[in-house]
Amino acid sequence: MQTQFFAHLRCRECGRLYPKEAIHVCEWDFGPLEAIYDYEAIRRHVSRKRIESRAPTMWRYREFLPLEGEPSVGTQVGFTPLVRSERLAKALGVREAYVKNDTVNYPTLSFKDRVVAISLSRAKEMGFTTVACASTGNLANSVAANAASAGLESYVLIPSDLEASKVLGSLVYGTRVVGIRGPYDKVNRLCSEIAGKYQWAFVNVNLRPYYAEGSKTMGFEIAEQLGWRLPAHTVIPMASGSLLTKIAKSYQEMIDTELVEKAPFAIYGAQATGCNPISDAFRKGTELVQPVPKPQTIAKSLAIGTPADGYYAIQTMRKSGGAAEDASDEELLEGIRLLAETTGIFAETAGGVTVACARKLIASGKIPKDGTVVLCITGHGLKTAEVLTGVLAPPRVIEPSLREFDRLVSSDLAHASIPAKMET
């Protein structure tokens, strides 16, 4: 890997520069740090042809990622499908709709495999042997799986009421799973204290500047898969708000390095109504994000009451001409069903939020009906399957009789447009 592209860390508030170490806040104003690159060097070095010649993983964009050597963890992550769906577009009321399908990401079926691949590779470069995280589920799964494959010790701290499938999806890898009583914000605060005392590599605390950059790869892939063009409208779920800001950053980096033509792109954020501090602030016309002390939503992966990047997410949406929306539990469940029935993609609750919010943004005219819309679906529905209990109709049970099956089909034909032709 060309080490000269990743230059340093920089405070997002005051602009002070910092060395490439395990630090995440500015010592002057406590602003968050982010990775900065030599974009002129990248522009001279990269090309569409060079990127296309590489393996179909997130690492094909390695010049834009904060490592000093070759990746050592998650080398197969990324380059998930971008699925065009005419049926979904029709249901949403837009001309062209795509789904960025990270439900099939490797190895744990969520976009978090991207950020973990970066942060654990960086942790190994820095000499850490124990990695950890605060998580609402998907990050815990990914840290556990990737740490196991890399031979690293790991701890994952989660809210104690997390979905059973996500708890199991961490335990199976042999990680040390610690449930904390209370919402995610309390888990996160404890992790900050632990990181300071034990000097472990907490992927979303002291390694956050590196971790967050992994989200950019979703944006790079979207643009390449669209034929090296930016989508006019991108709808992204928001928990901390980091994914939204980093996809926007990736679009701008591609413009700045001449990989895509300069074009306007609008960024839209989607939250669950029971924990919507970012969309609420956006709607009120303020950048002051009021914490939600007790989230009330089945979309637990989005239930972060004090979003670390909320302020920056609002700025990103406003600057791009986008907007924010939120969806109730009932709306997100309908979003899961709509996505599955029109695309064959089974999304977790966060995906239901994205679909439901996109539908509302289109209906309100905030997303025009004649543009290209990309929906970012970030995790597989099997991770939160229990939310559909009692929502879907149970299977019909019959005796092993052709006559009974004929009656069933006749009943279906009376209520739906099923082709009547049968082989005899």
UniProtKB/TrEMBL annotation:
A family per Pfam: PALP
Transmembrane region(s): none
UniProt GO molecular function: L-serine ammonia-lyase activity; threonine deaminase activity; threonine synthase activity
Keyword field: Lyase, Pyridoxal phosphate
Residue positions, PTM N6-(pyridoxal phosphate)lysine: K112
EC nos: 4.2.3.1
UniProt cross-references to Gene3D superfamilies, sorted A to Z: 3.40.50.1100
Family matches, as InterPro entries: Ser/Thr_Dehydratase (IPR050147), Thr_synthase-like (IPR004450), TrpB-like_PALP (IPR001926), TrpB-like_PALP_sf (IPR036052)
Residue span(s) of domain Tryptophan synthase beta chain-like PALP: 76-379
GO biological process, one term: L-threonine catabolic process
Cofactor (UniProt): pyridoxal 5'-phosphate
Stated family: Belongs to the threonine synthase family.
Protein name as annotated: Threonine synthase
Gene (name only): thrC
